[in-house]
Amino acid sequence: MKKSNTLLLSSIFLASTIFPATVSATNIDKNETEWITIAEDSATDSVSHSTNKTLAKADYVTNWKLRKTGGLIGEIFQCNYSMLTTAKSKGKIDYIEAKSRLYGGDGGLSKSKTDSAKKSNYAGANAAGGVDGGWGCKGKAIGNSLYKDSGYKTVSRQKTFNI
Fold this sequence. Notes:
Immunoglobulin-like; elongated; mainly beta; 1 helix; six-stranded antiparallel beta sheet; signal; 6 strands
């Protein structure tokens, strides 16, 4: 009896190494992308909208966030990125704009998004797409913001990230 159990166990072991069991990964979504933040930055301006300058908070705030989407597998000649630019003002102003752009290594525009609003305090633009540039996916991401209010100085900002 002991010899037959040993023979049965070794047959099972041998079969499992030759024909491995198929494991089903039903709870893993293959379309799910991984977001890796590469760079973040922000800029603030205290424009003369407040009568009390010592208590004045930053009237205009621009935030930039560059993210790499997806993993490294299969991304030799094209990588996916997302450039988010947000423009916020303390109160509603005449015109506010946010623009995001992605460029490939050859300088060609890959993706561009613009959001603008009149009599508002927020604009946000997210350009997401592939960046070509050979090995390592070289390129750049640029974000701009623009603030216009009658009777006040027009404020514009730009931030460039190398990819």
